[in-house]
Recover the amino acids of this structure.
């Protein structure tokens, strides 16, 4: 009977060892995936929808990006022009926040400032088609690396972020990812 108990304990120990090895393998693969795909960049998310900010931040952080959120154009400009430390590598910018063209105004100001004009911007909007044409001034042109329509699928978000960062002009630093 004692032999049976010893065998049961040994089986349990082997199972725990197998689990620990599998977990270590999965963590290594996850870290390796972060280091070879160009992730790890700093992304500024600007949107007045707190749910969008929370979900987008969580998705980006779960994929190795550093995400900072603000809820309006004024706070975005403070981060871009007055924040100490490195500038964002990418801005996800909602068009309509405090007022109809808040995001477009932020983008226009970014284009006029030499320190941030080359930071890629992805415009985000819940407006589509005719709705957008009626709400936005017809003479507005936002220089953007991409556009996302809400609701945004996680895969679309990640693909757009990767593409925008991959096509950043020379001189815009993209953070070197850190394997965790």
């Amino acid at each position: 009977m004692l032999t049976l108990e010893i065998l049961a304990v040994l089986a349990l120990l082997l199972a725990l060892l197998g689990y620990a090895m599998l977990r270590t393998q999965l963590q290594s693969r996850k870290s390796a995936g972060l280091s070879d795909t160009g992730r790890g960049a700093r992304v500024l998310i600007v949107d007045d929808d707190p749910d969008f900010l929370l979900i987008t931040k969580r998705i980006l952080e779960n994929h190795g990006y550093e995400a900072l959120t603000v809820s309006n154009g004024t706070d975005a400009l403070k981060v871009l022009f007055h924040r100490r430390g490195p500038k964002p590598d990418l801005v996800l910018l909602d068009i309509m926040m405090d007022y109809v063209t808040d995001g477009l105004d932020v983008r226009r100001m970014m284009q006029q400032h030499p320190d941030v004009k080359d930071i890629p911007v992805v415009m985000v909007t819940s407006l589509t088609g005719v709705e957008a044409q009626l709400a936005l001034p017809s003479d507005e042109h936002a220089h953007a690396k991409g556009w996302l329509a809400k609701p945004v699928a996680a895969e679309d978000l990640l693909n757009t972020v990767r593409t925008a960062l991959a096509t950043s002009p020379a001189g815009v630093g993209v953070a070197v990812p850190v394997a965790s």
